[in-house]
Amino acid sequence: MRYTWALSLWALVLECLLVSPDASARSLAQIKKQGTLTWGGDLQGGEPYVFENPKNRKQLIGFEVEIADELGKRLGVVAKFSQHDWSTLVPSLERGDFDVILNGLEDTSDRRSRIALSAPYFVYGLTITIRNGDSYRSLEALKGHKVGTMNQTVAHSLLKVMPLEAVLYEGQQEPYADLSSGRTDAVLLDHIIAQRYGCNVKGLTCLSDDVTRGYYVMGVRKSDDTLLVALNEALKSMQSDGSLRAILERWRLWDPRQSPLSAAADASADASTDASADASADAPALAAPPEVPRFDAEQIKMFLKGAGITLALSVLAFAIASPFGMALALTRLYGGKIEKFLAGSYIEIFRGTPVLLQLYVLYYGLAPIIKLDAFVAAVLGLGLNYAAYEAEVHRGALLSIPSGQSEAAAALGLSRWQTIRHVLMPQALRTALPAVTNDFVALLKDSSLVSVITVVELTKRMTIAAVEVRSWLIPGLACAVLYFCLSYPLAAFARYLERRLEHDPARSSGKGL
Questions:
Q1: pLDDT of 39-49, one tens digit each?
Q2: Most buried by CB count within 10 Å: which residue of 79, 267, 361, 413?
Q3: What is the DSSP letter of 286?
Q4: The whole model's pTM is what?
Q5: Is 148 helix (H, G, I), strand (E, B) or coil?
Q6: Could you tell me where the DSSP H helices lie in 335-402?
Q7: Do 108 and 152 fall into the same domain?
Q8: Where in the sequence is the domain holding 442, given as residue range(s)?
Q9: Under a CB-based contact definition with an 8 Å cutoff, are residues 252 and 195 in contact?
């Protein structure tokens, strides 16, 4: 019966995984019937795309919010925002989470092969930002240097084919913070981002010449051809009556780069879409995506490298957490009043705040004082956080030892330190072993959080591969297998030690410590 239930559960899981991505997709007729047009975006993109109104956090503002609202009016529906991570917007659209992508989606051949793209609504230029005094004036001049950008962007595509090191970020402000602190040598991002987050930073300079130009477009599922036509017609109408330009001017985004939009107003929506591809013909060519993306041997090598980084990171972090946690536990139990207060405060602060926040503070917040390498910051962040948990594990193990042990040691003339060292700690370590093993496995999984400070470990490698090969199933399973291969041997070794300790002759006979 147990096996029958297990097989049924796996069948249900597979059914969910293999269900058609468009199962929840809505046609234009359904959208109009329900009265809402759901558009996907990421609030992390910030100003001026889509962000919370500082004066009213329940209200979203941004130039794309206004474009979505205007499109909704022209379609006779209400535009509704749906929050999704930017790097997963395309697969989220494909699985039917929302109706249209409207969030700085760049027009690329790879995206055109997966989804249908609208006419352009904004023209961007890729801008290089450097530190004041640096002599770099082109990507070629940055050969062998570190250049920051965001994943799954045209900028990233350009950097991947250059002989330099691309450093990937989740947010838009972090690349410029690292550039300012000297961790990278340049940043390549859209001018709309550079102007807001980089050019105005003290000590940074934005180069005036665009590396290349491209277009922001909306994305819909290829099966939603009627919705695409309606969006293009509404966008053409916005271009013709000047409302699109008015929105861009209101957000200080209209500049000479936007001239193709004015020209597109005189053409049909379909023609304007074709023109968007033709207009970029004079721009530097981007690396063509593979015709049939697949999870191959090269991907496996990258996964193994990510697994190696995860393991090294976890081992080093736990090498800090375990002894430091023991020291905190001993201090809290046997220290003076001040020492106990300090140890208790540390434990409560680090247990009571998210490790993600601690990583941000350690890497970005302390940058003006001490510039830690990303890997070092990750090790310290996880190690210091888990030390608080280990402290409570060891404290509980020490308290579980009968008081008679300490009294007997004192009667034999052992000092407090000798009692702790030779009597209490060996017994406490035996008791704490299962919990310590469990914490190491948990730390192994929590190491996935360090991608926010640019460390590309196993989970981050999985998300990158999932978007590249257009599937989350195979990369996800590969990632899970590698995590299991990393954690299971440790758990098996811990069980082996527990069995050895249970059959320890000295322990079972009551002799020894």
A1: 999 887 788 99
A2: 79
A3: P
A4: 0.65
A5: strand
A6: 337-352, 355-360, 374-399
A7: no
A8: 297-508
A9: no
